[in-house]
Specification:
The longest helix has 21 residues, at 709-729. This protein has three domains: 48-312, Aspartate Aminotransferase, domain 2 (3-Layer(aba) Sandwich); 318-352 and 604-748, Aspartate Aminotransferase, domain 1; 361-602, Aspartate Aminotransferase, domain 2 (3-Layer(aba) Sandwich), CATH 3.40.640.10. The chain contains 26 helices and 21 strands. 55% of the residues are buried. The chain is globular, with a radius of gyration of 25 Å. 39% of the residues lie in helices and 13% in strands. It is an alpha/beta fold.
């Protein structure tokens, strides 16, 4: 279990400084968590979505018990949670799940979700220009500030026969007994129309023993927020029954909704520290947490019950190869289920997080131990980023997705009379209902509509891409062209072509649309230059940043805009612009970002990456792409590289190169044979790695390319057999590994 926390008998005060602010300065508890994690070289971010820690399993169990008790459900009732980075990410995730769960009746309800939104904050973000639910940036959310307005909109009243996908109730604590009774009746009408119910409890006191709204409404989803971290660490979650999460409980759909920072160890420890004092030391939750701390298989059992069973399925099939137990610099240590440990060169770098690898000692000395909550780190960061990028206005974020979302919102406000947005295919922007617009993958978006319709996706790699782009912008209706210069995942194996970028630049001058760049993955020499658009675009109007700013320690990010964009957006909606400026402002996150930027030059990353980029380029070029191997196309930009897995010959009729078998085989081959932490097909090599470490990974790439598919599968089969033998021959009793049932009592 994590270090013992002192109970907090009183709830943390809600943030009150700044419009819409949700975070408080980091106090001794949060700084203590970081001190312990960094000092003990425990992983904070090891990989997105697939990272299972003891703390994340424990936090999932505690949240399940918390929600169960709030609603007066009997012991043994289990809930699952999805961890996000803010209340808004959690609310968007809840809406996505409501829509996906009702996909079978989508033709009737068309994704329509009613929202009781007393303060209007969700409505402002969904529809920043007040264009109505059909034309909003997030279509299909119909928001009302009062119960009377909501009642008039429900089926059986003003709109008989209109089907619903869901009802989201925000701020139920504002209702008196009479209002709650009325809400219960409205919720019953919504259920009769096919809706499921979500309740927003983002500011609930973690010590609260019951909640009248949860008890009366019996919601399908409960949305939780920053109160569970004392408002000191970015956090959000949505929690519901296993039945509610059924659409995301298959291998094909388990990661349709995801994020990079969700479930990070800092947030998980903060949640545990806030929730655990609810229960007496002899309560069953303490025994469950202690059992998980002592046994990896019990950790996986707990995670499967309360977070994501498909992630656990993957971990068990990989026999512990993703069980990262130590993270330091450019090295990771994994512990296999047999107890054997492997030290690996990190080839993923937490999906590109940080500029100094994992657990950098200076994060303690220069940030955590010297952090002054009274210092204006947020303002300092804005000045530093303005000097770095030429974009003077910073909108703090808690993830790459929230940075992209702010950028899109500001672009719409700044160009209120032009609705069209152009995104190039293969771009990845995030998974919230706004950042999803910048994720140009049809399968990722399909279950969650309606989405903003006036958006055009253009494949930049077709012979006619320039002509298609010019035709799409010719009528002057384009507000924003959004570009990720280099893609970290897709079937694209090259940067955006130069002639297309020239056409973007020409049109920006001639037609006045805005140009935004997504530098979440590519900034600070990840792709060879300080920013990936340097040398490719002469100037831009908006930018999103995140991963490099985190320093591998804390979820943070930023959307940057020009003064012209800022002033135009503020003229259109000053309240919303003020809220976007303040909602995710966080002194500790800004402090980490400032230190990360300073370390870019202190570590000489310009010269280092220039040298190491050539090692990666030549290493990938040396991969054998002959007809019998498992490697097809490949490319590299700086320390980012990718290759195309394939299964040639007759075996290809039975084995999908993108399928589960090949994915697991490649992960196991990299970790157990090449001794490199590479997940499938992408290299995100640490910026602080030595040349020897980079060459080690590239030698593995060369060996893999010379390994045919049958040999690859045979090597993986031998690994499985060897691990089974090790476990069978290991001394001492072993408990049965049969996982507990996914659900023990219906909660719908």
């Amino acid at each position: 279990m994590p270090p013992k926390e002192h109970p907090e008998p009183h709830p943390a005060p809600r943030p009150s400084s700044g419009p819409g602010r949700h975070l408080l300065p980091a106090g001794p508890r949060t700084l203590g968590i970081l001190t312990d994690l960094i000092g003990k070289e425990q992983p904070i971010f090891a990989m997105p979505s697939w990272f299972v820690t003891t703390e994340s399993a424990q936090a999932g169990h505690l949240i399940s018990e918390f929600v169960r008790e709030l609603g007066g459900r009997p012991p043994g009732t289990d809930f699952r949670s999805f961890f996000a980075n803010s209340r808004y990410e959690a609310l968007h995730g809840a809406v996505k799940l409501l829509r996906h769960r009702a996909a079978a009746t989508a033709s009737a309800h068309r994704g329509r979700v009613l929202v009781l939104d007393p303060d209007g904050t969700l409505a402002r973000r969904a529809d920043p220009l007040g264009e109505g639910p059909e034309r909003a940036l997030v279509p299909g959310l119909v928001a009302y500030t009062t119960l009377r307005e909501l009642s008039a909109a429900l089926p059986g009243t003003a709109l008989p026969g209109t089907a619903l996908c869901g009802l989201v109730v925000r701020r139920p604590e504002l209702l008196d007994a009479e209002g709650l009774a009325e809400l219960v009746a409205l919720a019953a009408a919504a259920r009769a129309a096919g809706a499921r119910i979500a309740v927003d409890l983002c500011d609930i006191d973690p010590g609260r023993q019951s909640d009248a709204a949860v008890t009366a409404l019996r919601p399908d989803l409960v949305v939780l927020g920053e109160s569970l971290t004392g408002y000191e660490v970015p956090f959000g979650a949505f929690t519901g029954s296993h039945d509610m999460f059924a659409p995301w409980s298959t291998p094909q759909a388990a990661f349709l909704h995801s994020n990079t920072y969700g479930g990070n160890t800092v947030a998980m420890r903060a949640v545990i520290g806030r929730l655990l004092p609810r229960w007496d030391a002899n309560a069953p939750v303490h025994r469950a947490l202690a059992a998980a701390a002592d046994d990896r298989q019990r950790t996986l059992d707990l995670y499967a019950r309360h977070v994501n069973p498909m992630t656990v399925r993957m971990h068990r099939k990989l026999r512990g190869a993703l069980n990262v137990v130590r993270a330091k610099g450019s090295r990771l240590t994994v512990r296999l289920d047999s107890g054997r440990t492997l030290e690996l060169v990190d080839g993923l770098c937490g999906a590109g997080l940080g500029v100094a690898g994992h657990s950098p000692a200076d994060a303690l000395t220069e940030v955590v131990r010297s952090h002054d909550p009274a210092r204006d780190h947020v303002g300092e960061l804005e000045r530093v980023l303005a000097a770095e990028t030429g974009l003077p206005r910073t909108f703090p974020a808690v993830s790459g997705a929230s940075a992209v979302e702010s950028a899109f919102t500001l672009a719409r406000l700044a160009r209120p009379h032009q609705r069209r947005i152009i995104v190039f295919r293969h771009n990845y922007g995030g998974k919230t209902l706004v950042s999803l617009l910048a994720t140009a993958a049809d399968r990722t978006r399909a279950p969650f509509g309606p989405l903003y319709e006036d958006i055009r996706y253009i494949d930049p790699f077709t012979p006619h891409a320039v002509d298609e782009f010019r035709a799409a912008t010719a009528d002057g209706e384009v507000a924003l062209v959004w570009i990720e210069l280099v893609h970290g995942s897709s079937d694209a194996y090259a940067p955006i072509p130069a002639d297309l970028l020239e056409a973007v630049t020409e049109g920006r001058t001639a037609q006045g649309y805005l140009v935004g760049v997504d530098e979440v993955l590519t900034s600070y020499y990840r792709c060879g230059t300080r920013f990936a658009h340097h040398g490719r675009l002469p100037s831009v109007d908006l930018m999103s940043l995140s991963k490099a700013l985190s320093y591998g320690c804390f979820p943070t990010g930023a959307a940057l805009v020009s003064e012209a964009v800022y002033e135009a957006a503020r003229a259109a909606h000053p309240q919303l612009v003020g809220e976007l400026r303040g909602q995710h402002a966080h002194g500790l996150g800004a402090h980490f970002a400032l230190h990360a930027i300073a370390q870019v030059d202190a570590l000489g990353l310009d010269d280092r990456v220039r040298t190491l980029s050539e090692v990666v380029r030549s290493g990938l070029a040396a991969m054998d792409t002959g007809p019998g191997g498992v490697v097809g196309r490949r490319f590299s930009e700086g320390l980012l590289g990718r290759f195309e897995p394939r299964v040639p010959g007759p075996l290809g009729r039975f084995v999908d190169p993108q399928g589960e078998l090949m994915t697991y085989a490649l992960i196991l081959w990299w970790i157990t044979r090449a001794r490199a932490f590479v997940v499938y097909d992408v290299f995100l090599l640490p910026l602080n790695a030595t040349e020897r470490e980079i060459r080690h990974v590239m030698r593995g790439a060369r060996r893999l390319s010379r390994t045919g598919p049958l040999r690859l599968l045979a090597q993986v089969a031998r690994f499985h057999l060897g691990e089974r033998l090790r476990q069978a021959l290991s001394p001492g009793p072993r408990r049965a590994r049969k996982p507990e049932p996914a659900t023990r009592r219906s909660t719908t």
